[in-house]
Specification:
disordered C terminus; 8-stranded mixed sheet; single chain; alpha/beta; 15 strands; 5-stranded mixed sheet; 271 residues
């Protein structure tokens, strides 16, 4: 990685050693937006890391929320910024672009992983582009997304080759497609227990994902933040790093397939 990342002692203390190392890793080898001027910082340019802190209490965690963002060093040095929710909303509204999501935007991949038993497991990977942490977490980062997911019944992902336990009751995935071929693109939705769509994305699954779902009726659903940014170049390696760092949660959930060509196909998958 050729980019120089500038992290002040103040920001480093908030991020923790694991996250500081992670922000120097290949998942950040991409161009990012400058928080201050809203222009691109190219992958070879220096970038300062800022912490944007929202001290207003979050009902789920009773802790302040914060996220790491980037800036051109000439626009703002690496530091901790404290803003209100109203100020955050105003900034997001002013900077939102129709082709780019906000802090709640998500990358989605539908693929398969090999299991230790020699089969394959269908997997849906969700990676939120915002990296939210709990303020004042001390030397080790506390990932807000992971903490929140564990609190509602998702499981820590400790291996990419061994599917986790069932997801919380009522959660499911729906995949709507228009073509018969197994790799046909379509709209993937994650539904909550009330049937509301929490995540929706247009994806093209790998050729084995849908047949594996047909055989099992289920998929592994894995959630985290900022771990799919280098998927196109490193694939599962980025997922493995996030697993080793303890940054992912998930569970096995039912899948509804809506489209032509969903017929039973024999094969060996995790059951």
């Amino acid at each position: 990685m050729s980019r120089t990342i500038l992290i002040s002692d103040e920001v480093g203390q908030e991020l923790g050693q694991e996250q500081v190392a992670r922000m120097h890793g290949p998942e950040w080898a991409q161009r990012v937006r400058c928080w201050e001027c809203d222009q691109w910082i190219e992958a070879t340019d220096e970038a300062a890391v800022l912490i944007v802190r929202v001290p207003e209490l979050d009902e789920a965690t009773a802790a302040g929320l914060q996220t790491a963002v980037h800036a051109h060093p000439g626009c703002r040095s690496s530091q901790v910024l404290t803003l209100t929710l109203a100020e955050i909303d105003a900034i997001r509204g002013a900077r939102q672009r129709p082709d780019e999501g906000g802090l709640d935007a998500v990358d989605v991949v539908a693929t398969t992983f090999e299991t230790r038993r020699g089969g394959i497991a269908p997997v849906v990977l969700l990676s939120y582009r915002a990296d939210l942490t709990v303020a004042g977490a001390g030397p080790d980062r506390v990932d807000l997304l992971t903490t929140s997911m564990l609190a509602v019944g998702w499981h820590p992902i400790t291996s990419a080759s061994e599917p986790p336990g069932p997801g919380p009751d009522g959660y499911r995935v729906r995949f709507r497609h228009d073509r018969r071929d197994p790799a046909a693109p379509g709209v993937l939705e994650v539904l909550d227990p009330l049937g509301q769509v929490g995540t929706e994305a247009y994806v093209q699954p790998t050729g084995l994902w849908r047949p594996a779902v047909v055989r099992t009726g289920r998929t592994v659903l894995i959630q985290g933040s900022q771990y799919l940014t280098d998927w196109q170049t490193t694939g599962q390696a980025g997922v493995n790093r996030a697993v080793q760092a303890g940054l992912l949660t998930g569970g096995v959930v039912p899948v509804d397939l809506d489209g032509p060509g969903n017929v039973d196909v024999p094969g060996s998958v995790y059951r």
